[in-house]
Amino acid sequence: MDFDIFLQILIAAVAAGTPFVYAALGELITEKSGVLNLGVEGMMLVGAISGFIAMAKTGSLLVAVFVGMSAGALLSGIFAVLTLTLMANQVASGLALTIFGVGLSAFLGLEYTSIALPGVPEINLPLLAKIPVIGKLFFSFDILIYCSGLLFMAVSWFLYKSKAGLVLRGIGEAPKSAHALGYNVIKIRYMAVLFGGAMAGLGGVYLSVAYTPMWVEGMVAGRGWVSLALVVFATWRPARVMFGAYFFGAITIAQFHIQGFGFDIPAQLLSMMPYIATIIVLVLISRNQNTIRLNSPASLGITYHPDNQ
Questions:
Q1: ∠ CA 47-196-64, rounded to 5°
Q2: Strand, coil or helix: 252
Q3: Shortest CA distance to 31 belongs to which of 198, 203, 231?
Q4: How far is CA 278 from CA 21, 222, 251, in A?
């Protein structure tokens, strides 16, 4: 294989993995607080169509990002009210949120299926972008890809270097103990859920505005579910989330190149590759229950309210 082609595949893998980075890091924060939100797919779709409409109307990427994040946060806020205030089952509420998001995004996008956006231009840093290999691989992406890297650093610092991150992880492990120490468990979990929704919405905005600048019904195509699996794959560690996101991004891109390399594989089987890989990875991880128990928040998915201790 020609090295230039290999380099282009790597660059495409980074772009394809960026939606996973946003959605999975957002879900990571949510789950670290002890809340399991299975509505990532729906929040990404609503964020995608909301950001697309905002971009089509205003032409401003900043407005599109704000609207998409707000839409994702609003949807996650509904989930938070149901599960944290009304104490509904988190799994059932998350699944309902996904179904609602799929339908709402399809309805909102009826008039926008034939519209194409100009996309988000790459930031070619004058000198750095011209460095052989390294320049193309690190210094020729769009602003949203660079922001995903900043998000990773911010989340890593927050979880392991800040007092607030320690409190969040403590709440995920033992909400009753955190409440006894004077922390408002429900308020902090609300903030974590809203952050997760905003990041899922931002992942959707990247898909519809930058990655494939058009609206297609159901364009998230299971990336929300893969992002959920990615958090488990990463054993709730930000660095592993980044590795996993680009790994799944590479698999997503690979399906478009395998036939070009002369392999006679049905297109339907190639389109299944990211999801087959997800299942295989989860099966392999599930074989080691000790790893999951050590890293999984102890109260994940368990309904809690301070008045019902």
A1: 30
A2: helix
A3: 231
A4: 15, 11, 10
Output the pLDDT for position 26: 97
What gap in Å lies between CA 241 and CA 248, rounded to an integer? Answer: 10
Query: What residue ranges define each of the domains in the chain, with the CATH number in brackets?
Result: 3-308 (1.10.3470)
Helices (H) and strands (E) in the chain, counts: 14, 0
Structure tokens that stand for 297 in this block: 């928040």
Q: Is the pLDDT of residue 130 over 60?
A: yes
Under 8 Å CB-to-CB from 27, ≥6 apart: which residues?
Answer: 37, 40, 196, 199, 200, 227, 228, 231
Residues constituting the chain: 309
The residues near 113 (Cβ < 8 Å, ≥ 6 apart) are 215, 216, 217
Q: 280-289 long-range contacts, Cβ below 8 Å, gap at least 24? A: 281/229, 281/233, 281/244, 282/229, 282/232, 282/233, 285/232, 285/233, 285/235
Arithmetic mean of pLDDT, 51-66? 95
Average pLDDT over residues 147-162: 96
CA distance 222 to 173: 29
For the CA atoms of 41, 43, 46, 50, the dihedral, rounded to the nearest 10 degrees, stands at -130
